[in-house]
Amino acid sequence: MAIGNSGKGYVLLAPTLLVMGLALAAPLLLLAVYSLHDQNGLALGGWTLAQYRAVLASAGYRSLFLRSIAISGLVTLVTVALAYPMAYFVAFHARRKFAWLIALTIPFWTSYLLRVFAWKIILGFDGVINSAALRLHLIDQPLSLLLYNPFAVVVTLAHAWAAFAILPIYVSLEKIDRSLLEAAGDLGDGALRRFLRITLPLSLPGVIGAAILIFVPTTGDYVTPELVGGTKGTMIANVIEVQFNSVGNWPLGAALSLVSMAMVAVIAALFVASARAAAKAAR
Amino acid sequence: MSFLSVSRVSKSFGGAAVVDAVDLSIERGEFFALLGPSGCGKTTLLRMIGGFETPDNGTIAIDGEVMNTVPPHRRPTNMVFQNYAIFPHLNVFDNIAYGLRRLRLRKDELRARAEAMLATVRLEGLGERAAGQLSGGQRQRVALARALVREPKLLLLDEPLGALDKRLREAMQVELRAIQRKVGITFLLVTHDQEEALSLSDRVAVMGAGRILQVAAPRELYERPNCRAVADFIGDMNFFHATVRQIGDSVTVNAGLLGILALPRANLAPGIRTDDHILLAIRPEHVGFSEAGVAGEIASATFLGERSHYHVKIAGRSDPVSVSGIAPTHGTVHLVFPPDHLIGLPNA
Ligand SMILES: Nc1ncnc2c1ncn2[C@@H]1O[C@H](COP(=O)(O)OP(=O)(O)OP(=O)(O)O)[C@@H](O)[C@H]1O
Ligand SMILES: [Mg+2]
To answer: Is the ipTM above a cut-off of 0.90?
Structure first.
């Protein structure tokens, strides 16, 4: 039997589609089903929208959502802003690019958990920063505002995700044809204008990719706020975890998860659209 | 002082001299071509004039101002790059308007200038086309328009037609010349296509291995090359060994197979003295067939329409003589070498 070109494509995709279907779509569907029921003791009750009403009506959840988005938005901003110069340096000025890329990503060969604990040690009450500052007599007593707050969460997450920002930005910068920059210079642009009119717009796909790659997973991060966030640094994932593991209210947990997903999707889409528009406007 | 004056300019990369003590003077409004084989340093020289490389030695002055350390964006030059370097994220109009935006023109004036330039390069109505959707010829015209719209004093073109097919290239050559006449800007064109250089330019500089070999008008370059490298590079040429016997009003040479000949004094390259071994050069179309002369055998004939091209074997010489014309017979012919068309070159 002859299989068309697209047919062949699907055959090649089949194993992936199967795994995705079983491991991603099915659990998502299950989550959706759970979220539309109510809890009846330990069993599922009847179909209802009560969970969503509860999520949307609660001021507590709302502020938690906002905080999660604010924290991961800040993480995204900080990470991309710090990663861009590094990627730029490697792409445009470094002699041994490969060595630099390896060096920049070595910290990410260790476990995520290990890196979070490392920050806990650095930021802690008797941690690296406090003891060093005490020794140097910069402070009289340890600062407690370093750990267990949103600041600690932002620092830890930004560091943990840096490689995911550096690599896509580096790739998009590396792809830029250097003669375009020469042409821009020839047409009257100094270094700053060349950057704003050529380099930045052409590296935008990398920046957008990096931002999405960081924003989406960090909004739902659970480990970092749990370990370094304290009560002020709690994020939505911690509450979802509590619903599933401690309270046992799976329908509410499911509804919280889906609302959070929807929000992330909407914000990411808005971000991509506005970044594109901004690039269009800058000629 | 000339409009563009390049004096004793050198540049080496990693110890190898790529441009070697080059002198060049170009007048305002001239269409000047820089011709030479691949890798002889043409692009490097052009890039130094555009400001993308700094000379190791020598000076480059445009309109009386020394430019050596002036960055490209402050030079009165614009460049059409060998690969065009069209901005991929901008459409045709924005590519062309790129260099105008920072001039703080009024909006309608900017639009008018860019639109006029679109018309000059015959791209009317394609302003909204995305950069990625252009054909090779269109890309070349966008690159040209983008540079011209800034009205530079000097336009640098690095093999702008190199990537085009023969038909399009010929059409674009005509257009390029017409545009240059219209805008009156000085053009410096780099090419390794001798026909292009000869047909387009007012003057041509032939470059070889980082040096300028000869600067002359196209006809002079063709008729009076000053060395073997130039003669070889431009068109087809036959060479014969000879010795100078006497230099007077005319020059007497002993040309071995061709006998003793007397050439006009003007046909002898400067610097040649009596008793020097020289090369006598003659174009295939100047070699004639006749009843008497040097006997030879036609080894091959190529029909080219109006005339044919022959390779004629003559006794005592390993290379066949190239002859362009119409042979009276097949087989054995007699060749004559009119002294007026024989040029004496240094045997280097
Ligand atoms: N940035 C550079 N670093 C090292 N070598 C270079 C550099 N640019 C050019 N060269 C060398 O200098 C020589 C001349 O190069 P150039 O590009 O000027 O040649 P060209 O005459 O323009 O040739 P083509 O007709 O092929 O474009 C070449 O051998 C090239 O390898
Ligand atoms: Mg070149």
So the answer is: no
Give the mutation candidate from B43, B70, B75, B87 for the A interface (greatest A CB count, under 10 A).
B87
Interval between CA B336 and ligand 1 midpoint (Å)? 43
Superfamily grouping for domain B4-228 = P-loop containing nucleotide triphosphate hydrolases (3.40.50.300)
Topology at the third CATH level for domain A58-282? MetI-like fold (1.10.3720)
DSSP chain A: ----HHHHHHHHHHHHHHHHIIIIIHHHHHHHHHHTEEEETTEEEEE-SHHHHHHHH-HHHHHHHHHHHHHHHHHHHHHHHHHHHHHHIIIII-SSHHHHHHHHHGGGGS-HHHHHHHHHHHHSTTSHHHHHHHHTTS-SS--SSSSSSHHHHHHHHHHHHHHHHHHHHHHHHHTS-HHHHHHHHHTT--HHHHIIIIIHHHHHHHHHHHHHHHHHHHHT--HHIIIIITTTT--HHHHHHHIIIII--HHHHHHHHHHHHHHHHHHHHHHHHHHHHHHHH--
**pLDDT tens digits for A56-80?**
899 999 999 999 999 999 999 999 9
Distance to chain A for B37, nearest Cα, Å: 23
Q: Is B13 in the pocket of ligand 1 (CB under 6 A)?
A: yes
pTM of the predicted model as reported, rounded to 2 decimal places: 0.82
For A:111-170, CB contacts with B below 8 A are none
Mutate to test the interface with A, among B81, B111, B149 (most CBs of A within 10 A): B81
Would you state the pLDDT for residue A4?
65
